[in-house]
Amino acid sequence: KNEVEQSPQNLTAQEGEFITINCSYSVGISALHWLQQHPGGGIVSLFMLSSGKKKHGRLIATINIQEKHSSLHITASHPRDSAVYICAVRTGNQFYFGTGTSLTVIP
Amino acid sequence: SQTIHQWPATLVQPVGSPLSLECTVEGTSNPNLYWYRQAAGRGLQLLFYSVGIGQISSEVPQNLSASRPQDRQFILSSKKLLLSDSGFYLCAWSTDMNTEAFFGQGTRLTVV
Questions:
Q1: Is B103 in contact with A86 (Cβ distance < 8 A)?
Q2: Cβ separation of A99 and B102 shorter than 8 Å?
Q3: pLDDT mean across residues, chain B
Q4: Which of A84, B35, B43, B52 could link B47 by a cystine bridge, Cβ 3.0 to 4.6 Å?
Q5: Nearest Cα to B90, choosing from B1, B16, B9?
């Protein structure tokens, strides 16, 4: 069993739709990251969370430490949001990654 | 500012040839450095991490090795590549002072 589980694996949405990607983890963590990987492969960090909720533009990330669960929401989705979204947790010096959610937003 | 450089971006190598991927970090000192591999259709897998010069921890036994000759330089190597070494390799760094992580642009390696 993976330390980090993401759902769904693949997601197709119409432009403008509200999108939710879920992440559950089974280890004790110091922080949780939401990452975005575009087709070229490079990864950028969207959020780092240790509690509560963060918002950046149309992106919102929440975490429930007791339930070991986090969600990434995209409001008013746009084709440029199409990418793979990866949940990662940090424990000590190590990071554990989910397998990613491939999002395609159709115009 | 803090940046991370990883090269080359793409690489096609024949089976049995050597490999050297380099990653350098700027704007910080004594970072924790990581090499990850992402095989097709799979998540990121930690290969090596280093908390200091000459200190390398290996997570997965394999055909690869890593070295950290300088504080902000991390090198991934192989003496003889296998077909199964094909994949996307990412370098990353973080610090103990905060838990943010920064990733390189990655190297797409195809072994033919």
A1: no
A2: no
A3: 88
A4: B35
A5: B9
CB count in 10 Å sphere of residue B65 = 15
Answer yes or no: do B44 and A93 touch at CB < 8 A.
Answer: no
d(CA B105, CA A82): 18
Residue A29, chain B, CB below 8 Å: the answer is no
C-alpha to C-alpha distances, A50 to A85, B75, B93, B97, B98, nearest whole angstrom: 18, 31, 19, 15, 11
Put simply, whether A63 touches B (Cβ < 8 Å) is no
Residues of B whose CB is below 8 A from A40: 105
pLDDT tens per residue across span B21-63? 999 998 888 899 999 998 776 778 889 989 899 999 887 767 8
**Are B25 and B32 spatial neighbours (Cβ–Cβ below 8 Å)?**
no
Tell me what pLDDT residue B44 has: 83
> Amino acid identity of A45?
S
Min Cα distance A89 → chain B (Å) is 10
Nearest to B102 among A45, A93, A98 (CB): A45
pLDDT in tens, A46-101: 999 999 999 999 999 999 999 999 999 999 999 999 999 999 998 877 788 888 99
In whole angstroms, give the CA distance from residue A25 to residue A74. Answer: 21
